[in-house]
């Protein structure tokens, strides 16, 4: 089969870029325009309240800090393979977010980041992205379970037996995963994955853990401040436990990054409905957090998608 000409390859790459960016913005627009419960004039009312300026400042700063921590996380992990500047780490993270916007559970992010590296490095980059996202998920699960237990203890949402059944199910899954670690599928196994994680320097793991915890704290407190902005006045630990529970359940459900706020928002409506919070406030808080943490970075990431140049691959002679 004849190889594609240079011009044909350039045309295909440009077409892919246009589809990614165009598709991202189309889905963003359709999601916002179809949300009938949002009355955007309420934001004006909220920010005109006394003390709102400080809350808006904190929310925006946490938006910047959240994405900055993610960029530094990626820079830290890639340093295991090769040095990576902060600027290049930012370009890779933001472009990957754009590419992953309408893929299930953001799996497009793995392929997008791998494109920045040589073909023989693709496996390592996918592995590092798994470590990057995995630690974030583990923190969300552990803190979320604690939040659910605390919230259920205060409001008795489900029976003790049901709660123990859920916890037992989680423990059973963990035991099964550990027991099947030696099962090999096409040369890959969990044992091999764990061994590779162990090969990484402990300093990188410690930094990755600290950055992941910091990012999680940014996200749940940004959500908390958004509720305060709309006049929700509930005890801090009640709010944080409910938000942590919502994040855990939202992270557990298969979804598209594009629809993440809708899934998380629907779970939040149930939890905060128990606390007597108006549904429109819950939907607004989830939507604004999605706009700040997904749509805004994707808008910037679109620039990096158009600037993308694949990592040069070695020639046949160099491979020899």
Pick out its properties.
mainly alpha, single chain, globular, disordered C terminus, 320 residues
Task: State the separation between the terminal residues, measured CA to CA.
Answer: 23 Å
Largest sheet: none
* Residue share in helix: over 70%
Mean pLDDT: 79
Order of helices and strands: HHHHHHHHHHHHH
* Low-confidence runs of at least 5 consecutive residues: 314-320
State the secondary-structure class: mainly alpha
Overview of this protein structure:
The protein has about 325 residues and is mainly alpha-helical. It has a domain of about 220 residues. It is about 75% helix and about 0% strand. α3 packs antiparallel against α9 and α4 runs antiparallel to α5. The longest helix is centred in the middle third of the chain and has 34 residues. The two termini are about 25 Å apart. The C terminus is likely disordered.
What is the element layout, followed by pairings?
Layout: H1 6-33, H2 41-47, H3 52-78, H4 86-100, H5 108-114, H6 122-155, H7 160-179, H8 190-199, H9 202-229, H10 236-252, H11 260-274, H12 279-307, H13 316-319
Short characterization:
Helices cover 75% and strands 0% of the residues.
């Amino acid at each position: 089969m004849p190889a594609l000409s240079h011009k044909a390859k350039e045309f295909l790459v440009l077409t892919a870029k246009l589809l990614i960016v165009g598709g991202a913005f189309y889905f963003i627009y359709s999601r916002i325009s179809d949300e009938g419960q949002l009355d955007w004039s309420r934001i004006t009312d909220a920010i005109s309240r006394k003390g709102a300026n400080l809350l808006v400042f904190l929310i925006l700063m946490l938006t910047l800090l959240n994405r900055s921590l993610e960029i530094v996380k990626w820079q830290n992990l890639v340093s295991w393979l090769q040095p990576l500047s902060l600027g290049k780490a930012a370009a890779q993270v933001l472009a990957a977010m754009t590419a992953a916007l309408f893929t299930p559970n953001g799996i497009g992010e793995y392929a997008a980041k791998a494109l920045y590296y040589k073909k023989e490095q693709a496996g390592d980059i996918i592995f590092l992205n798994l470590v990057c996202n995995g630690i974030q998920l583990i923190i969300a699960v552990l803190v979320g379970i604690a939040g659910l237990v605390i919230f259920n203890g205060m409001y008795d949402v489900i029976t003790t037996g049901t709660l123990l059944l859920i916890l037992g199910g989680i423990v059973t899954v963990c035991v099964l995963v550990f027991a099947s670690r030696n099962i090999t599928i096409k040369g890959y196994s969990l044992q091999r994955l764990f061994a590779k994680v162990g090969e990484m320097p402990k300093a990188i793991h410690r930094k990755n853990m600290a950055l992941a915890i910091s990012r999680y704290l940014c996200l749940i407190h940004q959500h908390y401040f958004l509720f305060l902005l709309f006049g929700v006045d509930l005890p801090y630990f009640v709010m944080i436990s409910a938000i942590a529970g919502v994040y855990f359940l939202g992270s557990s459900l298969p979804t598209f990054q594009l629809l993440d706020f809708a899934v998380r928002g629907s779970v939040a409506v149930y939890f905060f409905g128990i606390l007597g919070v108006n549904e429109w406030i819950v939907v607004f808080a989830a939507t604004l957090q999605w706009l700040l943490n997904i749509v805004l970075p994707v808008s910037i990431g679109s620039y990096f998608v158009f600037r993308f140049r694949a990592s040069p691959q070695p020639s046949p002679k160099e491979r020899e």
